[in-house]
Amino acid sequence: SSPDTEPQSDVSSRDLEPPAPSPAHVPLPVILSVVCMPNPGTTGLETACSATGTDVVSWAWDFGDGGTGSGASASHTYTAGTWTVTVTATGPGGDTTTDQTIVDVFDPAP
């Protein structure tokens, strides 16, 4: 007599649960450029800064002297000195990235 063997079950794809959906890809913000003009500049003259990037939903500026701004372009009037301008880009998922540039401001020649 031959030994009894139990048939192996054949699991088909219809018996499996579907995989859990993967989280949606949320792009990170990327800052491509930051420019402040005029640079160097003179006191009392407005300095216009602008930034470009990809996957950015908002911009925040810190002009380094307590002044702030928002938007892809912002302007600020400096006193004499060397100032570090920091721009923060926020992406659609809330992630942020920053970039900086230096602005030199001098008193006008007498």
Topology, please?
Elements: E1 30-37, E2 41-42, E3 46-54, E4 58-62, E5 68-70, E6 73-77, E7 81-90, E8 96-106
Parallel strand pairs: 2-8
Antiparallel strand pairs: 1-3, 3-6, 4-5, 4-7, 7-8
Write structural notes for this entry:
This protein has 110 residues and is mainly beta. The protein is built from no helices and 8 strands. The strands form 2 sheets. The protein has a 5-stranded mixed beta sheet, with no helix packed on it. Strands 1-3-6 form a 3-stranded antiparallel beta sheet, with no helix packed on it. A hairpin with a 5-residue loop joins strand 4 and strand 5. The radius of gyration is 28 Å and the shape is rod-shaped.
Structural Rg: 28 Å
Strand content: over 45%
User: How much helicity do the residues have?
Assistant: under 10%
Query: Which structural class do you get from the secondary structure elements?
Result: mainly beta
Mean pLDDT across every amino acid position: 88
Low-confidence stretches: none
Reported for the largest beta sheet, the result is: 5 strands, mixed
The helix-strand sequence is EEEEEEEE
> What sort of overall outline do the alpha carbons produce when their principal axes are compared?
rod-shaped
* Main β-sheet, spatial strand arrangement: 2-8-7-4-5
